[in-house]
Structures are given as structure tokens and as C-alpha cells.
Write a structure and sequence with these properties.
alpha+beta, three-stranded antiparallel β-sheet, 16% helix, DUF1272 domain-containing protein, DUF1272
């Protein structure tokens, strides 16, 4: 199951689980749309392709909450 990390690792932008606009690699490194575009859709950590992260809403989000651990190191 995806962690649904709450922020962009590059700029710290909030990326709520119910909203589109987050991009992830196969290791779940997470970036906002603007940073993914600036990175040419390649993860700077592993070199993997950044893809649209699916959303998680409603009952599923309540039963399986998104991660609250922020990854941005600022």
C-alpha cells in the first residue's frame, strides 16, 4: 500500500492524499507537479520515472490514512 507522503521532497509543497498533483517513483519518492516537470519526470534519488500518484479518498482514506512523515529537508 502506498504511504501517500504529505509533501514534495524538493520544495516542501503540501500534497494531500485526496488531491491530484503528486508524482512518485517506484520507491515512493514524492514530488509536486512543478518539481516533477523541472526534474524532467526523473527521480533525482534513484533515476526512476516519476508517475502520477493515485488519490485516496473517502472511506479508504479513513481506514488507511496517509503518512504524516514529511520528507522535505529544507
Amino acid at each position: 500500500m502506498l504511504d501517500m507522503r504529505p509533501d514534495c521532497e524538493r520544495c516542501g509543497a503540501d500534497l494531500p492524499a485526496p488531491r491530484p498533483g503528486a508524482f512518485i517513483c517506484s520507491f515512493e519518492c514524492t514530488f509536486c507537479a512543478q518539481c516533477a516537470e523541472a526534474l524532467d519526470d526523473l527521480c533525482p534519488n534513484c533515476g526512476g520515472e516519476l508517475m502520477d500518484r493515485p488519490t485516496r479518498t473517502g472511506d479508504l482514506l479513513e481506514r488507511f490514512p496517509a503518512s504524516t512523515e514529511r520528507k522535505f529537508k529544507g
